[in-house]
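forwarding from the other thread:

> can someone predict this with iron/sulfur cluster?

sure thing
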Amino acid sequence: MQEVIDTAKRLLSDGTVNRVAGWKAGEFPYDVTPAVFTTVEEIDNGFIYNDFCAPNLSKYLIKESHKEGKILVFLKPCDTYSFNQLLKEHRILRENVYIVGVPCTGKVDIGTVRAMGIKGITDMESDGENVTIHTLYGDKVVPKTETLGDKCRTCKSKKHVIYDELIGEDGEVNNDGARFELVEKLEKMTPDERFEFWRGELSKCIRCNACRNVCPACSCENCVFDNPGSGIQQRAATDSFEENMFHLIRSFHVAGRCTDCGECTRVCPQNIPLHLINRKYIKDINVFYGEYQAGEDVMSRAPLNAYTFTDCEPGIVYERGGNE
Amino acid sequence: MHRIGVFVCHCGTNIAATVDVKAVAEAALNETGVVFSADYQYMCSEAGQTLVQDTIKEHKLTGVVVCSCSPRMHEATFRKAAAKAGLNSYMVEIANIREQCSWIHKDMMSGTEKAVILMRAAVAKVKLNAPLTPGQTPVTKRALVIGGGIAGIQTALDIAEAGFDVDIVEKQPTIGGKMTQIDKTFPTLDCASCILTPKMVDCAQNEKIHIYSYSEVESVTGFVGNFTVKIKRKARYIDEKKCTGCGECIEKCPMKKVPNEFNLGLDNRKAIYIPFAQAVPKVATIDSNYCIKLKTGKCGLCSTVCGAGAIDYTQQDTIIEEKYGAIVAATGYNPINIEKFDEFAYSQSPDVITSLELERLMNAAGPSNGTLVRPSYLSNQHDPEAHPHTIVFVQCVGSRSTECRKGSKEYCSKICCMYTAKHAMLIREKYPDTDVYVFYIDVRTPGKLFDEFYRRAVEQYGVHYIKGMVGKVAPKADGKLNVQASDLISNEQLHIDADLVVLATAIEPDKSARSIGTMLTASMDTNDFFTEAHPKLRPVESPTAGVFLSGVAQGPKDIPETVTQASAAAAKVIGILVKDQLTGNPCVAHSDELMCNGCSACEKVCPYGAITYSDKEFRQPDRTVAIRRVASVNPAVCQGCGACTVACPSGAMDLKGFSNQQIMAEVDAICR
Ligand SMILES: Cc1cc2nc3c(=O)[nH]c(=O)nc-3n(C[C@H](O)[C@H](O)[C@H](O)COP(=O)(O)OP(=O)(O)OC[C@H]3O[C@@H](n4cnc5c(N)ncnc54)[C@H](O)[C@@H]3O)c2cc1C
Ligand code: SF4
Ligand code: SF4
Ligand code: SF4
Ligand code: SF4
């Protein structure tokens, strides 16, 4: 998208910012990587914005916003929620960031493409309508809508909740609940079936830590999994306890703070649908404490760590039990 | 090297009957670090404590585990004992093998097994204990009483009597509470206002007592000895200092149709009002929901007639902040809403009333000036039909209920048997031509002179007491009420045509008690009555230090009991206020700044406002300096609740004496 590149160059040239956080091509053209650009030349040579620019740039601002000068960042609607959440947690210095909201119609998900049975992929291109997949065995053209991951297919919002400048028209929040459909399916399983499902998924984990490293909510100075004093420090997934507990602990750590940005599932090399654990919590929070979307704003208090006068002491559990 | 001593208590047979205490003591010796173990009949006795102390000295113990009752009971006892023997108090751990073990197990095998596990957990924990030293904090010598009913009044008077300042926050325009609405009081039948008014006046005149009427507590922070309370003074549109209570304004106010809450809506008052003649403070209040001036800008009559110039339509709510050493919750009660109890036709017929409404109907200052009339005739009191001839009382309406109907209570409201006997007797005394029936489940009148009182109603006043419940009250076309009931003793169905039906309505804590409880972090039971620190031994203390309980806020009770408890609460408050310093709790939270993200999760959950943030410089591994926002805990304010430690994602926040590591060690020991 030329407008994005032009905006980056303009704000860098006029001195509004001294750096630009954006995307550049990765090892494969469809495997886009976040990058920081400091000159117009660098932008001309490497900056891209296309249907493969899935990475959420907000987390990088924890470090970047503490550096000298202002940085420009491009945020898709869902990325703005992560930004707000980090702002709420005092992790980003707002005054050092210039946000340009970019429109998004969903990003191509390589996992989804592979799941179609397409092998030997060498390159991909998108014209916004269709995705052309070049493979060792010839080209395939599929409608882009079919290449979206669960996250983009059930996009929660096309609205930017924070920005300094916007490219294109702002969209709407999507409240149709579609994003909870898979969670509902899991809820309908018997406990044994559900246990088997998650055992099956989580046992694939190789403890590469990609999910944690990409997660904007997982931005602790010293993660408990890296802290020898915590008693649960990083160990390879040597036994089933390790695999399972890593994900349960992590999901509890991000409960109420997870904005449902879907990055965990996107980066997992083992294609584990990690976002479903978090979505289950999001759904439960909505049911038990009222609708809440992490990152929607900076001021509201998250249900799981708000201390209110209506908190009843015998526990919400008591009331809940009474109703059901 | 750990040198741990384990002491297993029999607690008479309390523990020993279901736990093989000898086996527990033996098992302790298998734990690494345990150098001594013993069992003893009563560990808390002087001999038991001496055993602990001697062993500490003799075996040079570094840690002590007492397997006994709940730490709430005797942790302090054993800590003191250890300190006397030269061991830091915080090197003592209690394994609760009574409440959490022997009392809930029936079988010796499983009881013993669990006791051993609990012992192991405590040993695992004590190994990670570190000596702690409590700090000292100064005491603010002023008390706050929330609620100005007879409970709050008595507590305040007693505290003031001891020479300490005390503030009463009362949400109504006047203090006095429910007792102001009661006509005569059992068991002596003296008039309520005759005995209450002097106390209210004493409050007003006592220079140690400050009354914040028409005010509410907004927030409470701090801790015992050092509470900071924000009080909202609701706008009453009157300058309290100028108003003389002459009532000129009330005379002139054209807005006459405001339901009078003091008479429970049985008559009307003006938009500007003084609830009743003996109100304290005796100043007017404008009801902003009805005042024409406040609603439309027109009128303003009251300000033209007020000679004192006290009326101020521009007054706003104000918030004041005050510091207190101790707080008493005396928020009282209200009758429950009985509109859901359709069978009694309360909403259909004005002649079905609650007992509190009856108090107003019998009171000389009430809507009928003390003449008992059927409420349907209140506007036509001289009609010969106005006088009720047949009166039916129904007891336990909404109390002692086993049905899960919304609003009904499982508990006994305690006061209804007595006040119903009172009502029946007073009516028969004044109107001998009446027939009075009382339907009851059973009559509960323990108490000094109480049963005599009830028997008088039956024996001397000829009140018809019938064991049985009223099934239905049906209003008839002629205005009578058809009462269908069962007499359980003669096993008959009864139909009584009554002129008046009085429902002895259950009472419940004031609706605001829950939020007050949350502000005070004082725990409550499922009925929203405040719970006491110990039901038998600490009945007027809340489990939260510095918070005390007075009156019905803690549980249903009559005036004599309320006053007793009120004075007891005052004694406890005085016990704190006479001290210059209080010893703090060293088990407080602290954050590891190297791990802290500055995310504020901890601050958001801290009920005491103990956590603050600052930007600090940190040297990075690459030798650069980074500035980060980090949390720090004020140890004087922290109460050691541990909420922050679980909210903290990175584990930077930890609690002394209950560290994450200690808890994990306990869990590990249990799962071993
Ligand atoms: C019909 C009836 C007849 C009775 N007759 C008798 C009798 O004859 N003899 C007898 O011994 N007992 C009698 N009682 C019982 C008696 O009324 C109570 O024992 C007594 O009133 C309890 O006093 P209290 O101060 O605890 O509560 P209350 O009288 O309820 O006082 C509580 C006060 O706190 C205030 N308050 C509540 N919440 C807040 C808040 N959040 N902030 C500030 N202020 C607040 C309220 O406005 C009120 O003024 C009778 C009760 C009833 C219902
Ligand atoms: S797993 Fe927990 S401790 Fe680790 S980074 Fe995520 S939130 Fe922080
Ligand atoms: S990214 Fe996938 S494989 Fe890697 S740690 Fe997370 S769940 Fe495990
Ligand atoms: S333990 Fe934590 S949350 Fe609890 S009072 Fe102390 S600082 Fe506040
Ligand atoms: S919750 Fe933990 S990481 Fe966050 S500010 Fe508090 S101590 Fe620091």
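Chain A touches chain B at residues 66, 88-91, 219-224, 227, 229-231, 253-254, 257, 301-302, 305-314, 318 (CB under 8 Å). thats all i got for now
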